[in-house]
Design brief:
Elements lengths: L27 H10 L5 E5 L5 H6 L5 E6 L2 H5 L7 E5 L12 E7 L7 H11 E12 L8 H12 L8 H5 L10 E3 L4 E7 L1 H8 L3 H8 L3 H15 L6 E13 L2
Parallel strand pairs: 1-2, 1-4, 2-3, 4-5
Antiparallel strand pairs: 5-8, 6-8, 7-8
Helix pairs in contact: 5-9
């Protein structure tokens, strides 16, 4: 597509390439709720922590927080915090010397784990009556008519390009094996107020969009961005976007 000056628009570069900048942040209410379930507020473990988005929040409620992620590049880009210790490693083989944790969280990552192995490790490093919380946020929601157009894109135009594990997120982890004494979660949602460029930046980081680009099918996303901008209006217009939060919460011991 070309703009009015005749120059081609690169939709995939709009909003920049810093994924962490465009992630919806976890609300304080989520951490307060989980901390209230934990038997103590001494130690929390965030597995598959990425660049520490939830880990940083946990440090507001716990004396010591450990973040573990298998990606060295993610760990290299965390923000240092005096109460957080980060280290690189898989969820299925946590360090032998880990002290007991009162809360163990996994945010937007457990669908990549080998569940049986991770559950074994979670039980091993858990304190008595510890809480395990598997957290994900679902499909973003807009006001109409944006929401209808977005769901057409997500479900049909780009749906086939998602990794199969994404289905577990869309289902809110309801079909995951969860062999623990389960607790009904508090209803929560994530909220952001974004302009159109921020929205594009977030969408352009999706694994499905990466797969589309590698397959030479960029026009699928470009066409959506063009139509969605028309519905959005002025690029600088701020719009509210929400994601429902889904959780599986249970007692480990």
């Amino acid at each position: 597509m070309e703009n009015n000056s005749g120059k081609s628009i690169n939709w995939f570069e709009r909003g920049g390439d810093n994924y962490a900048r465009y992630r919806p942040d976890y609300p304080k209410e989520l951490v307060d709720y989980l901390a209230g379930l934990a038997p103590h507020r001494d130690r929390a473990l965030d597995v598959g922590c990425g660049n520490g988005q939830l880990t940083q929040r946990l440090a507001d409620a716990f004396d010591t927080v450990v973040g573990v992620d298998p990606s060295a590049s993610q760990i290299a880009n965390v923000t240092p915090h005096p109460r957080i210790h980060y280290q690189c490693g898989p969820a299925e083989m946590l360090p032998d010397n880990f002290a007991p944790f009162s809360l163990i969280t996994v945010a937007q990552a457990v669908h990549w784990f080998k569940l049986d192995d991770f559950y074994r490790e979670a039980r091993r490093v858990a304190a008595p009556d510890a809480i395990l919380a598997l957290i994900c946020y679902g499909i973003m929601e807009f006001e109409e008519p944006l929401n209808e157009r977005f769901r057409q894109f997500y479900d049909h135009e780009i749906g086939a390009w998602w990794p199969p594990e994404r289905r577990l997120v869309d289902e809110g982890y309801r079909t995951l094996d969860f062999p623990f004494d389960e607790i009904a979660p508090l209803p929560l949602q994530l909220e952001v107020e974004w302009d159109f460029n921020a929205f594009c930046g977030y969408i352009s980081t999706w694994s499905a969009v990466t797969n589309v680009r590698e397959a030479g099918k960029e026009h699928l996303v470009e066409h959506f961005f063009e139509e969605f901008q028309t519905l959005w209006g002025d690029e600088a217009k701020i719009r509210k976007i929400v994601w429902p939060v889904a959780m599986r919460i249970g007692h480990l011991k």
